[in-house]
Amino acid sequence: MQSAIEELENKAKAAKAASRKLAHLPTEVKNEALANIAESLMAREGEILDANRLDCEEAKASGMDEAMLDRLVLNSSRLQAMADDVRTVASLPDPVGEIIDTTERPNGLRIERRRVPLGVIGVIYESRPNVTVDISSLCLKSGNAVILRGGKEALRSNSTLARVIREAAQAGGVPGDAIQFIESPRRELVSRMLKMSENIDLIIPRGGERLVALVTEKASMPVLASGVGICHTYVDRTADLEKAVAIAFNAKVQRPTVCNALDCLLVHSEIAESYLPMIATEWAQAGVEMRCDERSLKILFSNFTVVPASESDWGKEFLALIAAVKVVDSLDEALEHIARYNSGHSEAIITEDNPAASRFLEEVDAACVYVNASTRFTDGGQFGLGAEVGISTQKFHARGPMGLRELTTYKWVIKGSGQIRP
Asked: Sign of dihedral through CA atoms 21, 24, 28, 33?
């Protein structure tokens, strides 16, 4: 009987072989396969949701926390959104073969850079079944084979989704081996996968800090990591207060368990006494726990249930209905706080002062920087990418939401007419 390690190695070799065929498939074939996937997700909804229900029941019984459980749950609307994202990926321009730039040398050589797939992409992820769909569709469209290794908490969901995707893609003309799913949840498979640089060209970890750190440290191939999201919203002294309430409420409450949700609210001292009770009223109705510095605590404690902030609350990704709150005396102080505690994910300023907005955009070092908008927009779908393989807080080679182009590299194509080097 084939061992789990042998299964992994055989699937990696099969993916490598399939990637060479997939790299040259016409756009029409890839789009047909994506259309089949979207249709199959909805046609086989019952099968998918039944598998997910079993995963969720087991997760609840094991005591999984609410943030992780929210990421695990599938329902009809989430499945529909996943199918819609697949259709959006199909509608996007195919990056493969795109000519990035062209130059002609004095000797007549014509040199161009042409976009090509990376090859085989390995993905190690936790909890989120939507990752199975998002990454498979992006890899398919960008001409890459994919090896998926999900967490044990979502094993039934991911296995079912991968089977649906593979069958639908194959019916559309894509090599079946281009989409591989590792059925075994054994941890030693991760260690082996991280050393398979002969068959895996890029590894992407999607999960908590420990997983990302492990993969980054141990992988023998390049790593494209999605980092922790510690997101600040700074309400400047010139902010439209009603606008600032709506934005901060959305950034914290709309979906608090995700990486682009607000973690820390910074408020200029000139408007703190007016603004803080306004946002506290709205947050209190939604059940948000406010962890306040001394100055915001003084403004709010008599009318609201608030908690004194500790040092560990600054620079913390809460993934829950909890927000740290701090009063600052200037834009400079806000910028200094963000520079000290941010993770390079998403940062926002609410202001009607254009010079302040410009300084914020220039000086904040993060993948996504906002003026007068919620950080919840840091998302591949919202950015028009169709879906995303993750949100990178790295600076090389991709940053922010990673879509089709981030799954490609390029090669130099040189056309001559008999030139030789003197």
From this structure: positive
Domain region containing 373 = 231-377
CB of 85 within 8 A of CB of 381?
Answer: yes
Residue 166 lies in a domain: yes
How many percent of the chain have pLDDT more than 90? 84
Measured CA to CA, the distance from residue 116 to residue 408 in angstroms comes to: 6
φ and ψ of 122, to 5 deg: -100, 135
The answer to whether residues 389 and 134 touch, using CB atoms and an 8 Å cutoff, is yes
Residue 1: pLDDT band with limits 50, 70, 90? low
- Residue 382 in any domain: the answer is no
Q: Which of 116, 114, 167, 176 is nearest to 145 (CA)?
A: 176
Residues 212 and 275 in one domain: no
Measure the CA–CA gap between 362 and 369, rounded to whole angstroms: 9
397 cis-preceded (ω within 30 degrees of 0): yes
Give this prediction's pTM. 0.86
Kindly state the average pLDDT of the residues 172-200.
94
Buried-exposed string 286-316: b where 16+ CB fall within 10 A, e elsewhere: eebebbbbebbbebbeeebebeebeeebbbb
Most confident of 212-216, 226-230, 261-265: 261-265
CA 81 to each of CA 7, 21, 191, 251: distance values in angstroms, whole numbers, following the listed order:
32, 30, 33, 20
Segment 373-410, tens digit of pLDDT: 999 999 988 998 888 888 888 887 888 998 999 999 99
Same domain? For 171 and 84 the reply is yes
| Under 8 Å between Cβ of 259 and 375 | no
